[in-house]
Write the structure tokens for this entry.
Amino acid sequence: MNILDKIVLEKINHTKYLNQKIIKKKNAKYNKSKYFLRAIESNLHKNKNALIAEFKRYSPSVKNFNKIKYIQDILEKYHKSKCCCISILTDKNFGGSLNDITIAKKITDKPIIRKDFIINETQVFETKEFGADAVLLIAKILSKSNIKKLHNLAIDIGLDVLIEIENITEARKIEGIDAKLIGINNRNLKEQSIDINKSIKLSKIFKNKIIISESGVTVSNIKKIKKESGISSFLIGGSILKNDNKIKYINRLYEA
């Protein structure tokens, strides 16, 4: 069983607990402000790179990843940098939890996306309850009908949505869905290999969408991706977290 299959199985087994915990919230009225999308659009209108800086304590697929202990230290640096949004990885396999969003909201007013393996409606309500501004949906682990259902629910309760794909088959899954933000993952989630050409090639099939290139993004890769595809939005985690001067590095990415 690969890492992705293991994580999805854990989410399925956790569903009954979540349903009991969140079920009473399903009829609540929610604020529908769209801060995450607006922040990205604002940077793009200034002809600047829109950067989503990711926080995770470690990665199960990267053996030499430096484990991060304190979210406060990292988030304070993200807040002072020129990233426009922050991604919080809440899955336990990456050392995360939903409490990290609660902590982050006390440190920064930058919009936050919950990055996790979302497979049911209860997790979407949970995302809103913990104060995230957006949620990630991964096409690889969802059917077309589930993507549409979860996307529409998230929009209805005031969350922006980033739908992530990594190949043409997954791109077809999101046809007919009014998605504003499409993430193209340069990483093969099952094999954990990186190919930034995926962003360049797959971005050409989308019209009138904001494309966000994810994984394996560095200063030099940004320049290549921008030149060959026009993409100016990026979700970046590992290269930032490994850098000793995170503010300076993020600002270099912003200007690349």
Observations:
- Residues 72 and 106 are 9 Å apart (CA to CA).
- The chain is about 45% helix and 15% strand.
